[in-house]
Amino acid sequence: MDHGENPVSIELQEPAEPVPQLLKLISSNEVAGFDSIMQEGETPVFPNPTNSSQPNGHQRKLSISISMPSSPTGATSAGTKNVLFVQDNAKGFKNGVPESCVGSKAKPKGVKFLSQPMPKGSVFGEGANMNQNPNVKKFKDKRFDSFKTWSGKLERQLTNLRGRQQESESEDDSVRPSENEALPVDRYFDALEGPELETLRASEEIVLPDDKTWPFLLRYPISSFGICLGVSSQAIMWKTLATATSTKFLHISLTVNLILWWISVALVAIVASIYLTKVILYFEAVRREYYHPIRVNFFFAPWISLLFLAIGVPPSVASSLPVALWYVLMTPFLCLELKIYGQWMSGGQRRLSKVANPSNHLSVVGNFVGALLGASMGLKEGPVFFFAVGLAHYTVLFVTLYQRLPTNETLPKELHPVFFLFVAAPSVASMAWANIQGSFDYGSRIAYFIALFLYFSLAVRINFFRGFKFSLAWWAYTFPMTGAAIATMRYSSAVTNVVTQTLSVILSVVATLTVTALLVTTILHAFVQRDLFPNDIAIAISDRKPKSHRRWFNLNRHGSSEHNADIDTFLKFANGDTKDIEAALKISSAEAK
């Protein structure tokens, strides 16, 4: 067929068989007033839609002639496309069919369709404009698939439904790391450095891009629950201020406790919902946090927050709580402690002397908080059990952290606030034992005095808390300071005088101001400066060790005469025995000295 610029006539003939009745009834030409535009005041006039001389059946009333280019490149050079509409009974046409075809006995040629290639994505709006959108490129980045729960399988299925060409499975498998095996603990110590194991070593590489900002859920750490600990502990403190006998002179209303408690509930719900979404969408990232020897301690924080909400519940909301709630909340503690405390005792890479860190206090303080809640409900054996477990492991942890081994690294300035976790455990332990015994006796006072001494020993070190950047670690100030203030009020109720009452007020004011300042600062960094959640390097380490280079190659880079002499001697005896080679190396080293 000639592909020149001559018009190509597309002729539509009558069907050999009559069209079914349903299609005939819905023909647009037989519906009165269909697709007609009338001016205001104009009377519609409809021509007779049928012609008695024509046979029954659907007929196309217009013949269309389209000028097609001779080649695909002609589509861009053609100026216009001529479309001719020929009415019925026009000159040279009869009923929309050329007269030459009517008089000819030869059958008309069959209808031919000419097609042109369609640009990819032109139908679904996936052209070049969308590919230039940085948000779309970020969404399509396959380097994050290894951390997704479904590893991009759902997206690939949707892509197939939309008609895209799927990439080969072998190529994806070569990029995606193993998803069924957990990262061994040795890799964390080999690839990371620092007391919190959050800094990547110079010889290591990460599996996620380090030149761009990761998705928000990948940057959202489990340590975000520290905010919930600080705010919910404030609800307990203001409840104690309103109900303690030693602070009645302040005339604090329980309304403050009610407002703070509802704020704490909302905050816990928001933080937990975001992290639960991370568990659903990026389970691999959560699993890496769980196997991290330091991050695993923060998995106690969500449950401690729930215990705080139960302790600080306003009397107007619930005067008493069901005992079953205590067993439900303490079950996760028992499961986590069986795992972590067993690793401390059994040794290996997760032994306490190797992973000891102030963050380990979170795995201990939950025992005392649970004992405090259980004793306030009237339970006896359960609170004593958790109090005993917490006391034993706190003693071991306290001694281990106090006499840090020479191989342990000191904490950087950014992590100095976690030292206040030393104060949290004895403060809560004093109140828990007071609830178990029914009075703030000598056992409670011993624990309280230990906490008070640690509090002041840290507070007087002003330079200890200056000159470092804000981070979520700052929330480690709030919970221990609030716990010390609450314990002081309990002690003041047992030993009431001006000194204890004044100390209660001072510590409460300091704790409230600290929480308020940190809450405002956190909101500014999260929503204004947007630097609260940087890329979490600790979860993106590779599961492969870096390639080790030969020793002589590294020595040769220095180019010193001593190193070159060792290499020459080694090459001379390369075909000899191993003992000769070692002896030659010793001789050359001695001569160089």
TrEMBL record:
Protein location: Cell membrane
Gene3D superfamilies (UniProt xref): Voltage-dependent anion channel (1.50.10.150)
Pfam families per UniProt: SLAC1 (PF03595)
Bilayer topology term: Multi-pass membrane protein
Listed InterPro entries: SLAC/SLAH, SLAC1/Mae1/Ssu1/TehA, Voltage-dep_anion_channel_sf
Bilayer-crossing regions: 217-238, 258-277, 298-318, 324-341, 362-379, 385-403, 415-434, 446-465, 472-491, 503-528
Sorted UniProt keywords: Cell membrane, Ion transport, Membrane, Transmembrane, Transmembrane helix, Transport
Comp. bias regions, Polar residues: 48-77
Spans annotated as Disordered: 40-77, 160-179
CDD domains: TDT_SLAC1_like
Assigned protein family: Belongs to the SLAC1 S-type anion channel family.
Protein name in the entry: S-type anion channel SLAH2-like
Organism, scientific name: Gossypium arboreum (Tree cotton)
